[in-house]
Specification:
With about 170 residues, the chain is mainly β. It has 1 helix and 8 strands; from the N terminus they run αββββββββ. A hairpin with a 4-residue loop joins β4 and β5. The protein starts with a helix and ends in a 23-residue tail after the last strand.
Length: about 170
């Protein structure tokens, strides 16, 4: 029975079909969050919209972060949010070593001075005992001027790198 299950899993591709080392050098920005690292690149579309494409990568956590949500906000000179686009990364769990892709597109407004990237994910820490062992924590963060030149630069193009936010 066990060999039959192994053959069935191999035939469907399963998780191993997603394996492969991504080309991190194509991303011009990175951000190290507590349990994962975000890599992304920004581009302007033919219509003038801002397109942000990237990966969420669980580099070291044996317990996968879950439900990675991202929001791209167009921000005005006074700090007010003018427009917003939201998405969820592919897959609901960020397994160690398996990048989760995401893509956001935001129409640019004339009074927009920058775009900020916000993220949120769920993390369950089972490293301690007691009733709160499986209680999820929601980790949130905001990356100001996410498409700005020279900010959040990727230091190591060979793979995931820890980069301190400035």
């Amino acid at each position: 029975m066990l060999p039959l299950i192994a053959v069935a899993c191999a035939a469907c591709g399963g998780v191993t079909a997603r394996q492969g080392i991504p080309d991190y050098s194509r991303f011009s920005h990175t951000w190290a969050a507590p349990h994962l690292t975000l890599y992304w690149a920004c581009a302007e579309t033919e219509t003038g919209a801002v397109r942000l494409e990237g990966l969420g990568v669980n580099v070291v956590e044996p317990i996968p972060p879950r439900y990675l949500e991202l929001a791209l906000s167009g921000v005005g000179a006074q700090g007010q949010v003018l427009s917003r686009a939201q998405t969820m990364a592919d897959g609901f769990e960020l397994l160690q070593g398996f990048p989760a892709a995401f893509r956001l597109e935001l129409a640019r407004r004339d009074d927009q001075v920058r775009v900020d990237l916000a993220y949120r994910y769920e993390y369950r820490d089972d490293s301690f005992e007691g009733p709160f062992r499986w209680t999820p924590r929601y980790i949130t963060g905001r990356i100001p001027d996410a498409c700005g030149a020279g900010r959040h630069r990727l230091l190591n193009s060979l793979g995931p790198a820890s980069v301190s936010a400035s």
